[in-house]
Records
---
Amino acid sequence: MLRTQGLRYRYADDGPELAFPDLDVGRGKELLLLGASGTGKTTLLHLIAGMRTPSAGDVRLNGHPFSALSTAERDLARGQHMGIVFQTAHFVRSLTVSENLALARTLAGLEPDEARIESLLAGLGLSHKLNARVDALSVGEQQRVSIARAVVHGPGIILADEPTSALDDTNTDGVLDLLRQQASDSGAALLIVTHDQRLKDRMADRVELTLNPTAA
Amino acid sequence: MRSARLARRNVMDRPLESGLSVLLLAFGVGIISLMLLMQRSLTEDLDRNIKDIDLVLGAKGSPLQSILANVYHVDVPTGNIPLAEARKVMRHPYIESSIPLAYGDNYELFRIVGTEASYPEHYGAEVTEGRLFDAPFEVTVGAEAAAATGLSIGDTFFSAHGLKDGTDVHRDKVYTVVGVFGATGSVIDQLLLTSIESVWGVHADIEGADQEITAVLLKKKNPLAILTLPNLLRDTPMQVALPAIEMNRLTQQFGIGLSTLRAVALLIMSLSFVSVFIALFASLRDRRYELALMRTMGAPPRRLFTLVLFEGLWMTVAGIAIGLVLSRLGVVVLAGALADRFHYDVAQLAPVAGEWFLVAAALAVGTLAAALPARSALRIDISNTLGQGR
């Protein structure tokens, strides 16, 4: 599904180069990337998602190198094969909850599929928020909707950037369970990037990776 | 979701910013469109009524007033002229045809004009009900005058003295309606036509009346008439006025005011495009994260460019549409005022040729005003933008 090889990144031409470990995440697998602040976790996630261009190495999605794609092709590939959950939920403000989910499907080249959206939101206990404006949701509801948006188009891999760092233990469990369940339901791989040490114990039976980039 | 629909939602989501841009553009387009519509109506009306009238013979005074009173019936005449003296001009070898007019009374502020059959014939007016006036105090009524006053065949009425007042009624002379003209779009529609003898008879016995008329509409046979007749009339109480020249002078004087108004309208339109530009730029600054988010969901840069372009186009199209509606409302209001004051109908609402150019120009500039901020959507760095948060 997703494989990285020899990934390196330099923020400035004369700055240090971060080197990242190779990753191999198959469909249905879970991977936790744990690292302290400033170790380049978010940068790695952006490299994996094709939002940054590595100074060396490559990201392969289903065997195809991201570097061989144009910007537009890379955007489309990301939209079709990946679902991203950000630390803070963000939406297209002018659209309702269901329209935001429909937009994610449309941008991935799929039909909106209202039945799928309704069923997904029902599973997350958000049926009553179908036509609500996103800015009328609570923070917890926004986070659940952002998870729904990440899986609504059936991506092969879900990338989550610090999904629990601002949450207490109870909510951390809830969000983690939700992510794992949604990934499992759609058969997607789950890759979580975080500095939140609490997840280390909760994902102990999964592939665990501690991220320690070294300056080159 | 299509870009056009999402763009419309984004525009509607910022009612204040979008509304200001739309309103400014609507005012600019509206004023220019109103000017084009009124110009078309007035020009057509002026041209229609001036048709084949080369000279107007009347009492000495303002030539423009003579034209406005005797051709367009919107001013008071400069005075009366003796029929005998007028006949000399009418029989001049340089004159091809002539239409005498005599008036001084009104019915419900619609002018009663004493004339001959050649007057309605000149404007192609046909009697659709009854017949043309013949005997003294018989009247054939213009279409709009008939509709407004409710006069129909067989009705009788008294005339009121003067042209702008209905209080001084001549109760000893009764007019009888013998016919109604069909609509012509000319001054005939607004008039009540009768014989010249009727006008004389209202103020004295027909036999004893001074044989005076108000004016004669002349068609020249020889272009030299324009040079010869003024000299011929130098020592008489009469003058000839040239409708084409006087109306040209009038429209030129109007033109200064219209040019100023047009410049103001163009300034408002320019401001509206600046407003569209600023509204989109400010909106993009606020929504950079949103646009970056759309990139992460699969929207290529070109799609974001199209989205912002559509947002500008929505505002432009809304401004144009509202402006065109406003201009038509303006025409209806102005036409109502003109109809009340002068009994003129200028309420033509069909698009005028210049409006297509106006719409095309507004769309082109609106697209340009949107394209500049839209370009910045092409250059969004997703990673940095998302890294900065909202």
---
Amino acid sequence: MSFVAAQILNGIATGMLYALMGLGLSLITGILNIPNFAHGALFAVGAYLLASAANEIGNFWIALVVAPLGVALLGLAIEYVGIRRLYAVGHDYQLLFTFGLALILSESIILIWGPVGYSYLPPPILRGGLDLGFTFYPKYRLFVMVMAGLLVLVTWLFLEKTRYGAIMRAGIENKEMVSLLGIDIHKLFTVAFALGAYLAGIAGALTVPIRGVNPGMGVDMLGIAFVVVALGGLGNLLGAIAAGLIIGVAQALVAAYWTEASTVVIYAVMAAVLLVRPQGLFGIR
Amino acid sequence: MNKLSRRDILKMGAGAAAGLGFPAIIRAQSKEIVILGLWDATGAFADVGPINDRGMKMALEERGMQVLGRPIKYITRDGATQAGTSTRRTEEAVDGEGAKFVIGPWSSGVALAVSEVAKRKKVLHLFSGGTEDISGSRCHRYSFQWAASPYTAAKTVVDSFMKANPKAKRWHLLVADYAFGWSVEKYIKEVGKSHGLEFVGADRHPLGEREFSNYVQKAAANKPDVVAMINFGLDAVSGAREIFNFGLTPKIPLIMTWSSGVEELVQLSPEIRENIWVGSNFYYTADTPVAKAFVKSYQAKFGNPPGYAPSASYSMTRLLLAGFDKAKSAEVQDVIKALEGIEVNDIVGHMRMDAATHQNIRPYFFMRCKSKSAMKHATDFADIIATGDTPLPKEYGACKDIGGF
């Protein structure tokens, strides 16, 4: 029993990271109405920025603040310089733009940081593990679980309880109406994209001591982020959080009894849910 | 007399080109020896393909891109670490470019598919990887295996490790779920019997797995004396990192049974490498004249020592060229006959290509990683503590008759 509890705990920890990725992607997808293919690359940039900043500054905590902000700035620039110019010409072009951007960012990572990945250890205070009674669990993973949970909560509170969050949700529901009410829809899009990029960046940064960095890490995560969004319902933020946790726990439990299927279960869960609810768990469209 | 139409003139022009121009091209083609390097630039082994290419190029450049007084045309194709893409691009290179000699790819499962193309198209195929089928149940005259037999690897690793850790009897295995993983796992368990090993767990993971925490928790729950991974590349790096994060290493030893060596170890911090034991087809401190010269030249060119990937492609290419020299011919079947039973001293030491199975009989390396304080420089990862070259016993051999051409 303690083994199952340990696997569930681990699933929640991993699921929190998936939720963070899914939340950012869902936000961008909801607002822009296009899947952001560069979301995985933004995750990787966040990871590399953390590793570089932590090595340069010698302080993980400062790097953890700086790296996602760097990715948010990058997101801001991408929206302002690129995507904004493509609103008038339709979704196909935006789609191609984010796809091309993903390739450019991935290749840039190789050009800047090289093709070979490396490891980065957690800060000394978070090294080692804790005996939780039913399992021994790495301190850093517990930290990530709490941190990701807090970030998800704060983002959700911002979107649900603040005026600007309400405008953003309204933007997801009906852009034209929001625009007619005199709200600067372009500014809204820019902020949403930057926030989505920030969430991808901080997910990437938090992952570094667990998974290290390598140029392919964005691609690995992008597929999962899309599954989370599809499973939760396009543009549905609560759905993204629930879907991230479901995927994480399903992966952990299947790995406990049938390890060979631990990757395929992610897609099997999505396929099963979409068969019954094509709009996703919480989606309405 | 009818006037010539524009169409007639074009036809004549085409005829003249066929009669005059094409034979010149054909003459040039027959003089050139086209060798294909099937190296992945995309897919799971996208990070390995470019360094495979480095090694192969170095071996060809050593000979001035010539053999038997004829120029070598080296072409590469991206197999995308997928059987479909790799076989299609190999066929295109054979039919379109006249490639008669193929080296690669890096994935065992994909190589098995390419080996079938080599058999059908009657082209020579050299490969290095962990599947035993190429020189086993699916052996044929056109494919050769450069890497040590999975049995040789398993025997070297288990015997050498148990000599150093006689009490570590409870083993948990973490195995990549494809041809290479299955082959090595089978022999680890087989050799383990003679040491009285108990396999408390053997979990298989998909190729390209990045979330190892679930597997590691399972391994920890089994309370093993040692965890042995039979996986490769980023899978191995991700696994080793997570095993450290969950506090298993350095308390208990971790064996990377079939490692690329340098390319994997450089991605792990010295703290993570503590108490890791590594089996590999090559390590750059190998004490052979060919290895010393190759490592020196590779380091001068690329700034870091070579791991298994560039070393294998380098040595396979040298082996192929030695086949040309011995055959004094560039005909595929002549070169195959020359390679059968060939003996050379190369980067790993003495190598003999078994004529009956096309399995390279050669040493396998076993290393122990150094602690951070013992490292003399940034790439001083490990010491070679043993080598082993016990060939696969006949009773296990699945290649009963390699057949004809």
